[in-house]
Amino acid sequence: MIKVFVALGANLEQPIQQLQSAVSALTAIAESEAIEVSNFYQSTPMGDVIQPDYINAVASFETTQPPLALLDQLQAIENNQGRVRIERWGPRTLDLDLLLYGDQTVDHPRLTIPHYGMKQRSFVLIPLADLVPQLILPCGTSIKQLISTKMRSELQQVHLDH
């Protein structure tokens, strides 16, 4: 079994509920239906497209699926929740990015692991650190080394009603 980390993001059609639905869908594909989920955070969008703020989180679970099969499952979850790919860094009902697949690296036209932009993204690193504060990335870098004070100031934790 391989431990994987998936970034979740949404900024359309009730983003908190979109992430909660995605967590349920990820739980269904996780081995033993066991999943860990970070806090939810609000972040400003990347790029120049005017759009609402995002809600972001990271989930972790174990799988026996190979990376591309898992990617297909993640994209099916996005599609089931109304994901439409119109413009890069545009608004979306759900975005699921496979960040880490154990300590493996993958360089495939459809998939790069570790995720190519994760080291620069507060909305990925901070939720990832919620789950595994001592995480060392496959390149040997500690996640703590990557998180700056500026990154922490970019996010606002969302308090969920349980």
Structure description:
The strands form two sheets. Strands 1, 2, 3, 4, 5 and 8 form a six-stranded antiparallel sheet that branches. The model has no long low-confidence stretch (mean pLDDT 91). The protein has five helices and eight strands; from the N terminus they run βαβββαβββαααβ. With 162 residues, the protein is an alpha+beta fold. The chain has helices at 15-29, 67-80, 122-131, 143-146, 149-153; strands spanning 2-10, 35-37, 40-43, 54-63, 95-101, 106-108, 111-113, 156-158. The longest helix has 15 residues, at 15-29. It has a single domain, classed as Alpha-Beta Plaits (2-Layer Sandwich), CATH 3.30.70.560. α1 runs antiparallel to α2 (67-80).
Brief overview:
By secondary structure, the protein is α+β, with helices and mostly antiparallel strands.
Annotation keywords:
162 residues, alpha+beta, Alpha-Beta Plaits, 6-stranded antiparallel β-sheet, two-stranded antiparallel ribbon, 5 helices
CATH overall fold name: Alpha-Beta Plaits
Mean pLDDT across all amino acids: 91
CATH superfamily: 7,8-Dihydro-6-hydroxymethylpterin-pyrophosphokinase HPPK
Distance between the termini: 31 Å
Number of domains: 1
> Which structural category fits the helices and strands?
alpha+beta
Quickly count the helices.
5
Binned strand content: 25-35%
The description of the largest β-sheet is: 6 strands, antiparallel
Could you say what the CATH architecture is? 2-Layer Sandwich
Strand count: 8
> Could you estimate the helical fraction of the residues in percent?
25-40%
Shape: globular
